[in-house]
């Protein structure tokens, strides 16, 4: 009988740890600046992967517009525009991003200038990712994604704050 109670107690304890681990949410604010280039805007579906290759953590937003915080009817990712996105997701110390276009719509090419990610919660970070690249098959570098990784794969995660750069 006591062995069953011990086993059940261990199971309840492990389930509690799992629930606590999965409820560790942070608030993300993402700012996306589309470049001011001819035909630089897009109606394509844009996804964003936030990652830390050092800790092997990542979170992918399959359709960034689902996190959109602009007024109703706003046309996201248009030439020269700045758009804001926000949502809660598992906490990650972000030091890399991959932005991907699904290449749909009329003139699907997109010139992405920059992405800024602010994380609030258990982790508090603000990091800017200069991209300055076309996500297009007919513009150099002729691919539908862009990755910016601040040395996560070199066992150092470079973090930027408004006033300094911190090696972590």
UniProtKB/TrEMBL annotation:
Keywords: Signal. The keyword Signal applies. It holds the Pfam family PLAT. Residues 1-23 form the signal peptide. Residues 26-149 form the PLAT domain. This is PLAT domain-containing protein. It comes from Acacia crassicarpa (northern wattle).
